[in-house]
Give the backbone structure.
Amino acid sequence: MPFPSALFPPTRPARDTDVTALAALWERCALTRPWNDPVTDIAFARKGPNSEVLVIEQDGKICASVMVGHDGHRGWVYYLAVEPDLQRGGLGRHIMDEAQSWLRAKGAWKMHLMIRRSNGAVRTFYEKLGFSESDVVVLSKSLT
Ligand SMILES: CC(C)(COP(=O)(O)OP(=O)(O)OC[C@H]1O[C@@H](n2cnc3c(N)ncnc32)[C@H](O)[C@@H]1OP(=O)(O)O)[C@@H](O)C(=O)NCCC(=O)NCCS
């Protein structure tokens, strides 16, 4: 059941004990890929002061997450996930607000995110939050 009256539990940084539940949430939200090991990604994000995994817990269960960080120039978010049963209840917007506050507190002035082409439906969600498409092409190269 969605949360009543947008009364959301507090957002907190992920802990060591959250890793298995987080990876399972990402799996349920179809965010995992064979080439991205969630455990490695979580550990890397939690390693330094410039990134974090934020979570919301309901009844002892992680029900929302966002990975947030900045690279010294831009703020980025990854692994935004809301438990499927709780989607469309405002939790996604709420945890994105929390990610925004985290970045602002770190001094970041712009927030970026990437949407997989296969997940185009989520674009409307981000547009409702004020995001718009940038006129850039993202390139990548594996370093491993
Ligand atoms: C994307 C996601 C986090 C949204 O969370 P949510 O809790 O359902 O979002 P909210 O209820 O806060 O929605 C905020 C607004 O976006 C709209 N919205 C949410 N998902 C939408 C969708 N798939 N298509 C169109 N609109 C959507 C809501 O209707 C709401 O609109 P309103 O402000 O006019 O009422 C959630 O659907 C999810 O976890 N998806 C799977 C993982 C994923 O795709 N993550 C993003 C990777 S880039």
